[in-house]
Amino acid sequence: MSDEQQDQPRPVLRVVKGDLTEEELAALVAVVSVRNAAAAHAAARRPRRVRSEWGHPARQHRTALRVGPGQWRASSW
Known about the structure:
This protein is mostly helical. The chain has a domain at 19-45. It has helices at 3-7, 22-45, 71-74. The relative contact order is 0.06.
C-alpha cells in the first residue's frame, strides 16, 4: 500500500456491482443514514434495566461473627 492510500479514509459504503448515478447513490446514502439514526434513537429511548440487588456479588461476603449475649439470635438476620 502506498502512502497516498494509507492517508485516505476507508469508504463506509462501496458499490461492488452495477452502475449507479449520483442521484441513486445519494438516495441510497440517505436511506442508510436515516435507518442508522432511527436505530440509535430507538436505543436511546429504551429504558435501562435496573440490576437486582439479590444476586449482587457484594452480598456473597459475610460479616464477622460477634461473640456475646444475644448474638446467636442476631446471627440469623
